[in-house]
Amino acid sequence: MPIISTFFGIVIRIYFSDHNPPHLHAEYQEYEAMFDIRTCEVLEGQLPRPQKIKVVRWIRAHQVELADNWDRAYNDRPTFRIQGLDQP
Description:
With 88 residues, the protein is of the alpha+beta class. Helices cover 28% and strands 30% of the residues.
């Protein structure tokens, strides 16, 4: 369960050998949601609205990198970190 990014207390993970569609897991405090990388839609779970908005904004800014990381993780290859929203 590699951590792909962290920002504003949100932890983003992409799991190795996970199922389709390409998605990520966002965790914030006791909340967790699964987001489709292509559409930014919540597939499962929930986050508070302010954190959901941040995650969607971040996904849109990094869709190419996320798709690459998804492919790597899906094929059990090493993933890489992606800059968070609160990082320069």
